[in-house]
Amino acid sequence: MKKLMNRPEDYVDDMLRGIYSAHKDDVTYAAGDMRCYVSAHKHAGKVAIVTGGGTGHLPLFLGYVGEGLLDGCGVGGVFQSPSPEQIYEISKEVDGGAGVLYLYGNYTGDIMTFDMASEMCGMDGIETKSIVGADDVNSGAPEVRRGVAGIFFMYKAAGAKAAQMGSLEQVLAAAQKAKDHTRTVGFALTPCIIPEVGHANFTLAENEMAMGMGIHGEPGIWNGPLKTSRAIVEESLDTLLKDMPLSRGDEICLLVNGLGATSIEELYIMAGDAAEALADRGICVYRSFVGEFATSMEMAGASLSICRVDEEMKEWMDYPVSTPFYCQR
Amino acid sequence: MKKLMNRPEDYVDDMLRGIYSAHKDDVTYAAGDMRCYVSAHKHAGKVAIVTGGGTGHLPLFLGYVGEGLLDGCGVGGVFQSPSPEQIYEISKEVDGGAGVLYLYGNYTGDIMTFDMASEMCGMDGIETKSIVGADDVNSGAPEVRRGVAGIFFMYKAAGAKAAQMGSLEQVLAAAQKAKDHTRTVGFALTPCIIPEVGHANFTLAENEMAMGMGIHGEPGIWNGPLKTSRAIVEESLDTLLKDMPLSRGDEICLLVNGLGATSIEELYIMAGDAAEALADRGICVYRSFVGEFATSMEMAGASLSICRVDEEMKEWMDYPVSTPFYCQR
After folding, report:
1. Which positions ≥6 away from A139 have C-beta within 8 Å?
2. Exposure winner among A19, A296, B289, B325, fewest CB in 10 A?
């Protein structure tokens, strides 16, 4: 295991110390607990949005806390859920009187955590609503799908609506609209290593890729020889468009996300291939997002997400945001 | 070699197609040559800044073309210099009548390229000045040092001064001031592979790191067992501060740069250790930059740069910028 770190058991807290030290004007923590990550800027009367999940996916999840996006994030151990108490403490801290939206990925531990936090908030008179990202097409039928990089589009939609002072129902509806129109396909080229484990829990041969692998190394739909970028793009788009059919002339936002170790150069090669393959299908890319949005530490690989957009969605996708990890003007 | 790509010989052009496709409102190219990368936004009367260098270091070099930073970039093959003709064509395109600053890394091929382009511009009546980044302390004595991630601080200073409509002399002086106050130490954990070569030209053992390795794999000052983040930080700061002594109470900007495959989590662990180790020495971090600023494709490793700042430098470092690859509000 080659990681720049100190003791494996301090991985998360050492990381958090670095983040708070680097971005002290923008973020802080609640309840004296570094894992109760909140924006340093409060907005009275605005619906607050809280996310959370395991460490190891930066900039997911905490990197989206900031202006025009989210208000707080529960930080779990590596690939582990935060606790209900942490989400509750964060909710109390960020609630601006207009309620709190819980927006996170479709994983069992996280669902239990947020449901329990919601009950605790209810007893304090803080209204909450919940919605989970579930965009990973190859992870199963719609009701059991995992949430991966496509949650970015839900953050953008809900974050914009909240910043425009929408009601809790309206912010939830914005997130739901983005969810309904978003699909993702991912693929890994190498595994990653959990610091406290010290070795990968699977291997891929030198010429092998894993189509559909999850961001915690969940098995995909096939392992086989590495394909060209263009071939991967074609297969991915076939999968995406079979699940969410689009018509010629439809517009989408495209997200080409790196899983951690894949170079930015390669992501742009895929972005170019995806734009051409979409054009061949008569689909227009309204806006492209290329970079690391949801990673799996040092895993090599990428994911492609598409989000169908209408005029309202375009406005949300273009809405300016600024966090220590992500800025869009 | 596990890369998301098509034919190795198309690596650079496929990447550029992706970049132009994703960011068509912001960047374009001159002279019908995709490797003559220029901003889509021209500013009459402003000093233009042109950079350039080999492909494989994104967001360096072209990623810094945009508002508040640079105006054009010559794109070479992987780890190869662009041609003088390309820099000349870019210069003609971006010149706003106030002259052009060439700001690039201290590599022999690049120096020849920019010097010849400067002569060609002179015959057209376009005034140019040149300055090279040379921040990599472990690469040798000051006059032969290579430029690495610390060039970011030169871009920030010169870009801000140019945006404030400084003269060519003033923009050059801003770059020189940032250069004089910037130092970098880098270290690699794994090599990277040039697509058309197909294999790494050196290896590091499973527990080994290379202190001082350059971003093209130039040999460093020692190879040995991987140290902890805190130990690497201490050694790096000792090297940096021996070369550029600072006094208690001095303020710096800190740049923790990932070389490509290293996770964002690890970079923040180092950033936290660096902030503490600097505080122990009485040095105050005015602003931190953490992420991928100058990479070597899928090389694992990182670099630490420090830039001493006074009030003028702080203003330049805080100046808002927006490019397709980097945004700072």
Report:
1. A145, A146, A212, A214, A218
2. B289
CA distances from B310 to A61, A165, A251, B178, B254 (A): 35, 40, 48, 11, 14
**Tokens standing for residue B205:** 């053992």
Catalytically active residues of A, by annotation: 57, 216
Average pLDDT, chain B: 97
C-alpha distances out from residue A23 to A110, A200, B152, B287, Å: 26, 32, 19, 8
Residue B199 falls in the annotated catalytic set: no
Q: Which residues of B77-90 are buried (b: 16+ CB within 10 A; e: fewer)?
A: bbbbbbbbbbbbbb
Contact A226 B2 (CB under 8 A): yes
Q: Angle A84-94/A108-123 helices, nearest 10 degrees?
A: 50
pLDDT by 10s per residue, chain A, length 329 = 899 999 999 999 999 999 999 999 999 999 999 999 999 999 999 999 999 999 999 999 999 999 999 999 999 999 999 999 999 999 999 999 999 999 999 999 999 999 999 999 999 999 999 999 999 999 999 989 999 999 999 999 999 999 999 999 999 999 999 999 999 999 999 999 999 999 998 899 999 999 999 999 999 999 999 999 999 999 999 999 999 999 999 999 999 999 999 999 999 999 999 999 999 999 999 999 999 999 999 999 999 999 999 999 999 999 999 999 999 98
Tokens 């954990």 belong to B189
CA distance A286 to chain B (A): 9
Distance from CA of B249 to the nearest CA of A (A): 18
Among A21, A207, A260, select the one facing B275 at the smallest CB separation.
A21
Per CB-CB distance under 8 Å, the chain A contacts of B34 are: none
Phi/psi for A145 (5° steps) reads: -65, 145
Residue A78 φ/ψ, nearest 5 degrees: -60, 120
**Residue B141 backbone phi and psi in degrees, to 5:** -65, 155
ipTM of the complex: 0.98
Q: Residues B55, B15: contact at Cβ < 8 Å? A: yes
The phi, psi pair for A56, rounded to 5°, reads 120, 5
Residues of chain A above pLDDT 90, percent: 98
**Within the 253-312 window of chain A, which residues sit less than 8 Å (CB to CB) from chain B?**
254, 260-273, 275-276, 285, 288, 290-292, 295, 297-298, 300, 302
With beta carbons under 8 A apart, name residues in chain A contacting B322: 327, 329
pTM recorded for the entire structure: 0.98
What are A301's strand-pairing partners? A188
CB atoms within 10 A of CB A249: 8
